Amino acid sequence: MTVHSKQDWHAKAESLRISHRMVIGGNSVDAASGETFASISPIDGRMLAQVACGGLEDVNRAASAARRAFEDGRWAARPPAERKLVLRRFADLIRAHRDELALLETLDMGKPISDSTSIDVRAVSNCFDWYGEAIDKIYDEIAPTAASAVAMVTKEPLGVVAAVVPWNFPMLMAAWKVAPALATGNSVILKPAEQSPLSAIRLAELALEAGIPEGVFNVVTGSGPEVGRALGLHMDVDGLFFTGSTQVGKYFMEYSAQSNLKRLGLELGGKSPNIILSSYPDTEHAASTSAHSAFFNQGEMCTCPSRLIVERSIQDEVVETLLNVSREYLPADPLDPATRMGAIVDARHATRVLEFADHARADGAEVITGGKRALEETGGSYIEPTIFNNATNDMRIAQEEIFGPMLTVIPVDSLDEAITVANDSCYGLASAVWTDDLATAHKVSKSIRAGLVYVNCYDCDDMTTPFGGFKESGIGRDKSLHALDKYVELKTTWINISGRS
Ligand code: NAP
Ligand code: MG
Catalytic one among 302, 304, 311, 472? Predict the structure, then answer.
């Protein structure tokens, strides 16, 4: 694999060709209105492209193209083994375009290029491979009924599905939905976030090149309140699969209720508790892993372990390690392969994130590092890694999702108090406990109301495991074979074989 220097990446960025039109029915198209919006890089505030700003008419065009493609069976009626081959070819093409896709992602939303290449692009191609590989190995059922009849339970694609996704892992959040939706035979309309539309457009172009037929994978760019809402309310969209904030997830429930009761999948926010107990033999390792996970991706992670719940007896040692690790995450040029913390997605979000340092002080927590902008001379949006110490769980920094590089340390005096604090949240996405005691690990795992529990680790990840949350963190799961169920309807067909008609 070629390794590029910072200079190489800057040179590549200069000569990058950026697609800025939507992909509808296999064509690269401008918005019906002719309007565009600026895609700005948070690295330096530079305009990358004027992107088609879709609206209702474009959503209608995409829905008709997707419906036509679905109804004539150009994709849905293909044998699963053929869909597999096409999806695997798509995965190969994504790998072949690794540098280009990674660069689009980094320029558009600011994450370090090392992460875009080694995590995002790799995980996206793996996701298409995985669902492609899976789909010709899944059987339907014959129910164990009386011998007078055969009852077949078969799976059919929903039809036209839409995916509305956020900007923190633009391609990956899309892939977690688009791959199982395509594998099961649906036609898809993807709406990327306004802050990060570029990689989605390029993915749809590569999908065509891989042989995914026209109209089967469409991308409509534009704003949430216009394009996202129109998809949510559309009478001819059968399912809507969303990743984003809890607030917007609730809007989608309303859109579904106001329109055709379309099926929803909602992957929403989090405020994940991470409990370090004094019984864990290597406090430094636990604290260091926790800090790396908290600052990874600029803290713009739904699973960010943003509430560090620590037994008071080891608090000082934990905090010292957190401070040491935070120094490795001082923001730097995202195109430098050595950079671990890049830019915050846009200036508006950076301002919102920074307000939490003020909330922390006002509520009585200590800001022991960070809480400031960095690299202002670049024209980009950067924030220093930030640690709040001696917080309590009722503070805003412990209750609200910050979605930035800010870690809140909450001391407790017992395991039971730690569990109570962990569950005192409207969210239930991820959680963790560090302990050397098996019984404690089981107790915490059973007691925490969250979709993911890590024991003595954080952010373990694999396509084979379901991902999603309890409570206001969402409904349904991405990844694993379980995710396939979201994109199919079950049909029961009774066949009378009694000999009597
Ligand atoms: P967001 O504001 O909810 O936006 C997500 C998507 O919804 C964007 O495409 C956005 O479009 C669209 N949208 C916004 N307002 C809308 C409306 N009124 N109607 C329909 N669509 C609308 O979230 P974000 O700020 O991009 O992303 C951060 C959030 O995502 C965090 O809460 C994070 O926890 C969550 N997240 C969850 C997971 C998970 O798997 N659970 C994973 C990653 C992120 P525009 O931005 O273009 O307006
Ligand atoms: Mg951008």
Answer: 302
